[in-house]
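Reopening this ticket.

The earlier resolution said the output was attached, but the attachment link was broken on my side. Pasting everything inline this time so it's all in one place.
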Amino acid sequence: MKVVILAGGFGTRISDESQFKPKPMVELGGKPILWHIMKLYSHYGFNEFIICAGYKQHVIKEYFADYFLHMSDITFDFTNGKNEMIVHRNNSEQWKVTVVDTGLNTMTGGRVKRVREYIGDEPFMLTYGDGVSDLNLSELLAFHQSHGRMVTLSAYNVGQRFGVLDITESGRITEFREKIQGDGNMINIGYMVCNPEFLDLIQDDSTVLEKKPLEEAARQGQLVAYKHKGFWQCMDTPREKKQLEKMLEEGNAPWTIWEK
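Inline output:
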């Protein structure tokens, strides 16, 4: 199953670094947060990625262009007029990564629509490029396959500034809407599983994923929540970046399950 990652936004709230690179390429512990997200998927056997790039998309392409080299032990042999590179050991993952320039100002839904030809006519996973979690992706997929509806998104209870979900006891989402004062509802944290027909709900580049497509799926009774009770944290601000960096430094980073 392919994994689509939204990585094209400007990241203005973490602008001290995003003026030089897209937000998913801002580093945690020496690796882009995009790498951390991909490592979680890879841990559960999902190794084919489609990156929806936009702002400074060349940075993402150049990172993966050099990835094999950076993850290898190399001998460069220039003796006797030679110019050879010998790879002794390589620690790179078995990833297939497609990086697509989905436009500078394209909205989130439009970015997904633009990579339709790479997704094909099959279910796919979809998430944002700025949040880390210890979510069990195998359980998420099994849950999606069990209910037979169009979209499953992961829901999390956190008191922040995001769109909220009204969820029935059976897990069906009855409304997808913006947060209002006094809400105690769960929020959408991405980590979605989508059937291909969901792409038909996306109109064009101006479509915001969290607006018409997900709202329409909810209206049709085709949007279901997978309630995550573990760890999740977005990296939207410098403060949140420092918080995640501290967890890594202290050896207490719940999302790095591939190291356990």
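Reporter confirms the inline version is readable. The CA atoms of residues 79 and 85 lie 12 Å apart. The chain is about 25% helix and 30% strand.
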